């Protein structure tokens, strides 16, 4: 189920963030950031979460009002990316995965991955 894959990815992200972000300046910068993210699955349910102080919180099903970033994909592609079967850059290059956000937000969010 796609919801379980997303929850697992969020858990892993939250567990690994301290190990992946060792730069104190970057930690300070990320600690000030709050972003609302919506995952739009074109052939299934939508989900959303909040990225706050370097952690993902408030994961839920449905849409979020005025998201800062939108991740748009079909269920099969997103499952493949979350399972590691499809590289995110390939999904993006083939337009099976799209990200709608300001350039500033995209550059900032890129630091997490």
Shape: globular
Q: What topology, given as strand order, has the largest sheet?
A: 3-2-1-4-5
CATH architecture: 2-Layer Sandwich
Low-confidence stretches: none
Can you put this structure into words, describing what you see?
There is one protein chain. The protein is α+β, with helices and mostly antiparallel strands. The protein has a single domain, classed as Nonspecific Lipid-transfer Protein, Chain A. It is built from five helices and five strands; from the N terminus they run ααββββααβα. It has a five-stranded mixed sheet with strand order 3-2-1-4-5. β2 and β3 form a beta hairpin. α1 packs parallel to α3. The protein starts with a helix and ends with a helix. The model has no long low-confidence stretch (mean pLDDT 86).
Task: Give descriptors for this structure.
5-stranded mixed sheet, 5 strands, single chain, 44% helix, Nonspecific Lipid-transfer Protein, Chain A, 113 residues, alpha+beta
What is the fold's blueprint, element by element?
Blueprint: H1 2-20, H2 24-31, E1 34-41, E2 47-52, E3 55-61, E4 69-73, H3 75-83, H4 88-93, E5 97-101, H5 103-110
Parallel strand pairs: 1-4
Antiparallel strand pairs: 1-2, 2-3, 4-5
Helix pairs in contact: 1-3
């Amino acid at each position: 189920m796609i919801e379980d894959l997303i929850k697992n990815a969020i858990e892993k992200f939250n567990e690994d963030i301290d190990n992946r972000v060792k730069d104190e300046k970057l930690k300070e910068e990320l600690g000030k950031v709050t972003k609302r993210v919506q995952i739009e699955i074109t052939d299934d349910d939508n989900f959303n979460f909040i990225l706050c102080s370097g952690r993902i919180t408030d994961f839920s099903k449905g849409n979020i009002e005025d998201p800062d970033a939108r991740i748009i994909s079909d269920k099969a592609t997103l499952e493949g990316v979350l399972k590691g079967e499809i590289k995110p850059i390939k999904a993006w290059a083939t337009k099976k995965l799209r990200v709608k956000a300001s350039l500033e937000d995209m550059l900032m969010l890129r630091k997490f991955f």
